[in-house]
Amino acid sequence: MNKSAICTENRIFAVIVIICLGMLCILVDGISGFNRMIDAVLGDDESIEDYSYRIKNISDGVNENIPVRNELIDMSGLFLKATGIRDYYEDEYGISFTEDGYIVSYKDYASTDYEIEQMVLLKEYLDEKGIRLLYVNEPAKYIDDSVYLEQFGKESYLNSNMDRFLQKLDENNIEYIDLRDEIRKDNLYSFDMFYRTDHHWTVPASRWAASKIMERLNTDYGYNAKMSLFDESSFLYTNFDKCWLGEQGRLLAETYTGLDDFTLVKPIFPTCFKRDYFGTVVQGDFDIFIDYKCYQDSFDAKGKVIPAKMNGWHYSYDDSGRIQNCNAEYGNVLVLGDSYCRTLVPFLSLGIRNIYEIQPRYMVEGQVIDEIEAGGYDTVIVAYAQFMLGAHDDEKILIIDSFPFLAEGIRMGALPEKWS
Questions:
Q1: Structural contact between residues 291 and 112, judged by C-beta atoms closer than 8 angstroms
Q2: 365 and 219 within one domain
Q3: Beta-bridge partner residues of 11
Q4: pLDDT class for 398, splitting at 50, 70, 90?
Q5: Into how many domains does the chain fold?
Q6: CA triple 181-183-188, angle to 5 deg
Q7: Which residues span the domain enclosing 235?
Q8: Which sign does the torsion angle of CA 108, 112, 118, 123 carry?
Q9: Domain for residue 251, yes or no?
Q10: Residue 414's pLDDT is what?
């Protein structure tokens, strides 16, 4: 098919979509709703690429303005649940629904060569600075790939990728904690440590993980934190039943997945923190890490109610900024992390004087080293969810590539002048 014919087909399809959505908008929201739909789709560029982009916008942006959108999603969820379909979005998201109601994802094979190169470069650099390095593997819901194969008949390399990566860390004398091993040692059920409709681990799981990391820092890194601060009995747990819908659940529907539970966890012992967020300093107890507004209904710019269940309750914990524990005497830690660290770092900070988490996936080349140069750190912890492996080699998820610590090919002795 020639270029002109493809362009014509795209135009016809776009017109059909606009007409169908426009009729729905007029029926439910009047002519103003139709005008919003038109404004979101029309543009000046008539290239094939531009029409494809407009069609994609119908999915990504225009559907946000469709009247009764939530009702249509819920209807779809009921239909999918009735049909017994449990596997969705294979090409982009890899979302599957287990028999006991957890959303999980498969993972393609990853060589992990790029990630290992970056870890070796980082270790060489830190060794020259006298800074210790620790890698922490944040697990996923299933810690054995056979679980996915048995339920969905497809091979997932989520755990075998990590096994291969950790073996290479061993070969390069890079220390690590594999929290999958700790789960097995403590005889825990890995699925219970995660939300059913969201890929993040729960707040109680974050407290548990922080205790394992702190124990390792005490044993091998010269720290002397009181481990009683991390005991389960040292915290108050407040449970909320069926209160929110996670990120993955929203890709399906509440009527299909149901709502998730949430547990708020706070120390019962006195705490004191200072947090410096780009020059704005806040001081208080552990509550400075928690945004209680996430647990309440809110309103959008038009005064429409946003139910609390649609808020990201995982994000109610916030570790942003440079954190200082007024009650701790030792430690200056930089965490190269991800969104799991929002709940992990507040608990880890209970045993460390100074801690600061940054996310390399949002930074430009050189910023990680600039921070290490300026921070006076004694320890750098790299803490990533294990599905991050392979992002550098996969265009679909390149945005979450979290390993660009140093420019490829740069090694000690050849650092830019500002890093030396």
A1: no
A2: yes
A3: none
A4: low
A5: 2
A6: 150
A7: 103-419
A8: positive
A9: yes
A10: 33
Q: Is residue 89 part of a domain?
A: no
Integer angstrom CA distances of residue 228 from 211, 214, 217, 225, 349: 9, 11, 15, 9, 14
Q: Has residue 338 been placed in a domain?
A: yes
Question: Within the chain, how many helices (H) and strands (E) appear?
Answer: 12, 15
Q: What is the DSSP string of 61-106?
A: TGGGG-TTHHHHHHHHHHHHHHHT--EE-TTTT-EEE-TTS-EEE-
Judgement on whether residues 23 and 141 belong to the same structural domain of the protein = no
Q: Which of 47, 67, 87 is the last residue of a domain?
A: 67
299's tokens: 């309103």
354 and 248 in a common domain? yes
- Please list the alpha-helical segments (H only) found in 274-388: 341-348, 367-375
Strands 305-306 and 176-178: unpaired
Pick from 99-103, 129-133, 377-381: least confident = 99-103
Q: Pick the last residue of a domain from 67, 87, 121.
A: 67
Residue type, 124: E
Q: What is the pLDDT of residue 64?
A: 58
How far apart (Å, rounded) are the C-alpha atoms in residues 383 and 137? 6
- Same domain? For 30 and 163 the reply is no
Q: What is the pLDDT of residue 44?
A: 47
Are residues 63 and 111 part of one domain? no
* Residue type, position 6, single letter: I
Q: CA-to-CA distance for 170 and 151, rounded, in angstroms?
A: 32
Dihedral (CA of 135, 400, 354, 286) sign: negative
> Does 126 map to a domain?
yes
Q: Say whether both 153 and 237 belong to one domain.
A: yes
Neighbouring CB atoms inside 10 A of 242's CB total 12
- pLDDT at residue 46 greater than cutoff 90: no
> How much is the pLDDT for 354?
98
Backbone φ and ψ of 95, nearest 5°: -95, 125
CA distance 210 to 213: 5
Tokens for 412?
A: 């000690």
